[in-house]
Amino acid sequence: MVSIFKQYQSEVGSFKFSRARRNSSFQGRTSGLALKYVIQGKETYSIDDKNFSIPAGSFVIFNPSKTYQTHFNGNFKEVLGLCIDLEKDVIINEEQRGLIVNTVYESELNPMSLCMQNIASNNYTNENFQLENLVKGIQQFSNENLDFNKRLEIYSKKLITRKEIVSRMRSTRKFIQLNFKKKINLDQLASRSNLSKYHFLRLFRLCFQQSPKEMIIDLKMKEAQKMLKDKKRCSDIAFYLGYADQAAFSNQFKKLFKYSPSEFVR
Description:
Jelly Rolls, six-stranded antiparallel beta sheet, 3 domains, 25% strand, four-stranded antiparallel beta sheet, alpha+beta, 47% helix, Arc Repressor Mutant, subunit A, 10 strands, globular
């Protein structure tokens, strides 16, 4: 059994929540560019003779005017989902659209995912404003995917391969963004991406134009700057960001910015 609750519609688009019993199914049709985000449980979509398994915290984007079959499963008695259809034109060309549809992505810390999460958690005051921001977020997301795919063409000529790599690299970047204060090693990241260390490092560099280590350092230093502006002590910052001691933190800071933490707060 599937029930729909809390629906909203405007000239920008519409969204609705679905609640389903485990092992039930539902058939629907997209109107505009459609985002399917799973809040709890697991959903499997069948569209164009392809199946897309979406765990909680992940989403998939489908083209307009597509008929789909949804199967609700997982370990939960109930499966909760968010369905968004955007009627307003999302300003991306056909090439960009082809790079973002029909691929499962883990939600990230980008504007598009944050808009979906805000709607899913009722953390907003204006529905139309959230949908407008979601349109902008999709444009940013598609532009970034376009850049990633162009860089990956030297690795694979197959679009489906490049799209899967982009999905894995995005997931890995989110993991780094959430855990950069902890100790993260290459083995751990490669394993999460289901790739060898050699291929993972090469593909990560191609997508993000920096190594995982460089990304981690950048995130730590940006966080350090915020903490210094808040008058935090260098010893506390070093401990919080996982450095062995204050000297290691200060040396890393000066190496990147060409001035010491104490000079930064003057």
